[in-house]
Design a protein that fits this description.
The chain has about 475 residues and is mostly helical. It folds into 2 domains: about 110 residues, no CATH class; about 350 residues, Neurolysin, domain 3. The chain contains 19 helices and 3 strands. Strands 1-3-2 form a 3-stranded mixed beta sheet, with helices on one face. Helix 10 crosses helix 15. The radius of gyration is 22 Å and the shape is globular.
Length: about 475
């Protein structure tokens, strides 16, 4: 909502604030405070101290001047990216992006260990203790199967109708609010507003806000955006109150966070049972015009399209979009791809992976905000989240098959309570992989995700 001319001043403000915060984080008294606390034997103290030491080390390795410059540059780069996207011209964003990439490489060099790559150092800010080598192994196996599944879908003779009509913004917002409340979102500790891009944000469990974006010709967009952000919000609202203001009181990783949103959006929201509930709501708010029967609705909300836009991608092709970004951003940070060649590399890789040429920068390299913010290492957490979500949902429904029946009424109380008891309440007490493996009782693999996708789309597309 800020005026265009406000970016320069906002950049100075953020630079000053970031420098001040960094000064507090690197206060020379902190090591003495840690040493004093280390004599306490209580397990919770030691777990918290481990996180404190990690955060202190991370902060002290990066000079204040770099922190300030990054904050300023990210603000200006965001404005540049927005203008470039509006003008559909990557060259307008290129100078600022080159600056961001240069600064993030410098930051990575500050924080990485001798045996750690630049990219892994940045990846660990979002997914602690994960490595790009491990992700490549997982993603390669997943990508091969996803492409085969997509090919089967695209050659299928099944024709799924599209929803037609105009659906009022006010009714869509009422629909989203009713679904969020049914899923368990606490409106006394949150609210839903409109924004250009849906997100979830908050200070702690008593103030977790979500936003959505409305397209009057497509009520599914806002509906599933609300479900996705509600998944994030349920995680935040489900964190332990006891450790709310302790270092371990936050979420375990972005992969864990994405697992919660993707589980609610895809495994719940796009499931056949939940479509029974959704169809009744659509009739309630929009009448019978263009609203199909429950079986057709299930197919419509899972339609596969080989499109350009990540945020509009179906469940089957979504991870292919993520893997493309992961490959490119790792090369950028490691210095194996010049920033000026990014658009050409994007277009080439997209054509290879999706077999369709990118028509313009807006539908290609300029579609995401992440790189303008310097969020290198964030993208792969979406696919990590999908892998975790499938494993968690498989475990829940295997132990409690009645959860599927309850979803027909929009009731996910059993699922929500299980997640709160096995994931949410632990905060950062465990590493992400340990947290998931403790919850599901076995090692993490891509098998649950592939089984879920194969079962769903073979049913829809008859193969």
């Amino acid at each position: 909502m800020m005026p265009t001319k406000g970016y320069e001043n906002r950049a100075r403000q953020l630079s000053l604030l970031s420098g001040t915060i960094h000064q507090l984080q690197t206060d020379p008294k902190i090591p003495d405070l840690i040493e004093d606390a280390e004599i306490m034997s209580h397990d919770s103290v030691q777990i918290n101290l481990k996180e404190v030491k990690k955060q202190f080390r991370r902060a002290t390795l990066v000079p204040k001047s770099l922190i300030e410059e990054l904050a300023s540059k990210a603000c200006l780069a965001q404005a540049s990216w927005l203008e470039a996207k509006n003008q559909n011209d990557f060259s307008l964003f290129l100078p600022e992006l080159e600056g961001i990439v240069h600064l993030k490489r410098n930051e990575a060099d500050c924080i990485r260990n001798p045996n750690t790559t630049r990219y892994d150092a940045l990846l660990n800010d979002f997914e602690p203790d994960e490595t790009s080598r491990n992700l490549k192994d997982i993603f390669f196996d997943l990508k091969t199967h996803l492409i085969k599944l997509r090919e089967k879908v695209l050659v299928s003779s099944m024709k799924i109708p599209e929803l037609k009509g105009s659906f009022s913004k006010a009714d869509q917002l009422k629909l989203g609010a009713e679904v969020a409340r049914k899923l368990g979102y606490d409106f006394e500790a949150g609210r839903i507003d409109l924004s250009a891009h849906p997100f979830c944000s908050g200070s702690n469990m008593d103030d977790v806000r979500i936003t959505t974006h409305v397209k009057e010709a497509d009520p599914f967009y806002s509906l599933f955006a609300v479900m996705h952000e509600t998944g994030h919000a349920l995680y935040e609202q489900g964190l332990s109150r006891k450790t709310a203001f302790e270092p371990i009181g936050s979420f375990a990783s972005m992969g864990i966070h994405e697992s919660q949103s993707r589980l609610v959006e895809n495994h719940v929201g796009r499931s056949s049972p939940f479509c029974h509930y959704t169809q009744d709501l659509l009739l309630k708010f929009f009448g019978e015009a263009s609203i199909p029967d429950k079986a057709t609705l299930f197919k419509m909300v899972n339609r596969v399209t080989n499109g350009f836009i990540r945020t509009e991608a179906d469940e089957l092709t979504y991870d292919l979009h993520i893997m493309l970004r992961f490959e490119l951003e790792e090369k950028l940070i490691e210095g194996n791809l010049a920033t000026k060649d990014l658009e050409e590399s994007w277009n080439h890789l997209f054509l290879t992976d999706f077999d369709i040429p990118v028509p313009d920068a807006r539908q290609g390299v300029l579609q995401d905000i992440h790189w303008s913010l310097g969020a290198f290492g964030y993208f792969p957490t979406y696919t990590v989240g999908n892998i975790y979500a499938a494993a968690l949902f498989q475990k829940i429904t295997s132990d409690y098959p009645e959860a599927m029946e309850q979803m027909e009424k929009g009731d996910i109380g059993l699922i929500r309570d299980w997640l709160k008891s096995n994931i949410h309440c632990h905060g950062k007490k465990f590493g992400a992989r340990d947290l998931i493996e403790n919850a599901i009782g076995q090692p993490i693999t891509v098998k649950p995700l592939l089984a879920h996708l194969t079962s769903k789309f073979s049913e829809i597309y008859n193969f």
